[in-house]
Design a protein that fits this description.
This is Heterodisulfide reductase subunit B. The protein has 297 residues and is an alpha/beta fold. Helix content is 46%, strand content 10%. The longest helix is centred in the C-terminal third of the chain and has 17 residues.
């Protein structure tokens, strides 16, 4: 079995701990072996690369160097922002002058030659959707979902090198294999506002509000995403969006790992469904999940 160095990212151990927990559960179910990168550090996210490319690359390079010493097949991360930073630095390190500058800062050799992928890409490459379907014990039948990819999961395409940047289908195919009804969604790669929720709240309420409006108009029971920032804006800020836009949305926003884990037999509690701000009970009742019974125990 191939082993992968696992980079959870800062949000995976804080604001999106349910993503980390459900990712580990899904990978275990599918035989994808994760080995935590010891003493990993923040990738710098947007602030680092927006202010200093060398700082951003050095933060990432330290993690690359540690992973390279682990004897693994590659590095995987659930977070699109972390993935973009990891892959961008790995590409930049191909330039000798830049490589030397970064190595002098991190004070250790960095090959920058390990494959770097998202958890979603790794799961779908190691286990085709049709193969995953054979492991389903609780089909998502009856659940109508819209897959929301966000703006950086597949962009820029020459860096991310996975799925179509304008019309990705990886989440669609996975959800269909798990038994859900996937609705065509015109905003699947639109921006939710990202971290601008801290300084331009009105922008996030407009952009994320449009995503929620369309999902509701299509008759979706839930939104499915793979991005911690997208999930936070659509879920945690849904009350703010309703107040600002005069709407009454109550749309659960799942990580794809939560629904996949549920379909593969994991319990709601193991997948941290209780961490969602918008209750998933009504959506899960559409697929006959014994949500109320489990919570009553």
């Amino acid at each position: 079995m191939l082993q992968y160095a696992y980079y959870p990212g800062c949000s995976g151990l804080s604001s999106s701990i349910e993503y980390d927990v459900s990712t580990r559960a899904l990978c275990k179910s599918l035989g994808v072996e994760l080995v935590d990168i010891p003493d990993w550090n923040c990738c710098g996210s947007t602030p680092a690369h927006a202010s200093d490319h060398l700082l951003s690359a050095s933060l990432v390079a330290r993690n690359l160097a540690i992973a390279e010493s682990m004897g693994v097949a590659g590095i995987i991360t659930p977070c699109p922002s972390c993935l973009k930073n990891l892959k961008t630095t790995s590409l930049r390190m191909q330039r000798k002058s830049f490589h030397e500058k970064v190595e002098s800062i991190v004070e250790r050799p960095v090959r920058a030659d390990l494959p770097i992928r998202s958890v979603l890409q790794t799961v779908l490459e190691q286990c085709e959707p049709e193969a995953i379907a054979k492991h389903v014990s609780k089909p998502l039948k009856g659940l109508k979902v819209v897959p929301y990819y966000g703006c950086i999961m597949n962009r820029p395409p020459d860096v991310m090198t996975f799925d179509d940047p304008e019309n990705p289908t990886s989440l669609d195919r996975l959800m269909s294999a798990l038994g859900a009804e996937v609705l065509p969604f015109p905003h699947k790669v639109d921006c939710c506002g990202a971290s601008l929720g801290l300084i331009r709240r009105e922008l996030v309420t407009r952009l994320s509000g449009r995503i929620l409006d369309t999902a509701a108009a299509l008759g979706a029971d839930a939104i499915v995403t793979a991005c911690p920032m997208c999930q936070m804006n659509l879920d945690m800020r849904q009350g703010q969006i309703n107040r600002a836009n005069g709407t009454r949305h109550s749309m659960p926003v799942f990580y794809y790992t939560q629904l996949a884990g549920l379909a593969l037999g994991q319990s709601e509690s193991c997948l941290c469904m209780d961490k969602l701000c918008v209750s998933p009970s009504r959506a899960l009742s559409q697929m006959g999940t014994p949500a109320q019974e489990e919570r009553a125990r």
